[in-house]
Amino acid sequence: MKVLAFRHVPFEGTGHIVSVLEARGIGCDYADLYRDGVPDPDIAAYAGLIFLGGPMSANDPLPYFDRERVLIARAVERGQPLLGICLGSQLIARSLGADVHRNAENEIGWFDIEFTEGAVRDPLFAGIPGPATVFHWHSDTWELPPGAELLAQSQACRNQAFRAGRNIYGLQFHLEVTPAMIADWQAQDENCGDVCELSGPIDPYAQSVRQMELSNLVFGRWCKLL
Description:
nine-stranded mixed β-sheet, single chain, alpha/beta
């Protein structure tokens, strides 16, 4: 069994997700449609699709975003499990008919999320006590797609996680990141504008142990949907 992960920049990968997949004998291929000449993948060959983050906006007029939204719509029709992380969640939300827009403030660093009543009975989040401190790096946010259920929120951003139907998930926060990824993101040229607005460097290890526990639990449960 394999899943397909869509990357949007070289430095935003699957992080903890791939470790969870490997522990369950699930392979992971990558689709880098942002690179010139990369053809559309055959999504029917995969048990599920993952759409990762990136420093761009889901509203940017990028041709490969149009291609990804077509593939998302096709996967929804097929009933394939989908998981979107940050930008990936915004692409899925747009494909489901929701607006994506600037959040009132940038949310970058370790911040708490609270789970909604909908999360109590959710296959991925049931039984997880709140608040949970997780890693964030975003300036945009999505409106809740029609018919979707809100699962988590934070003080700075009301919409943090949703489930649409049985197996379509969007997470605004970065549950997948490792300490090495957080350190690397702060050094990337594409993120220099965001980093300059911070009061100081982000400690990659501040909540990394608990984040890894949550990652193993949530992504492990997602694997059961495949």
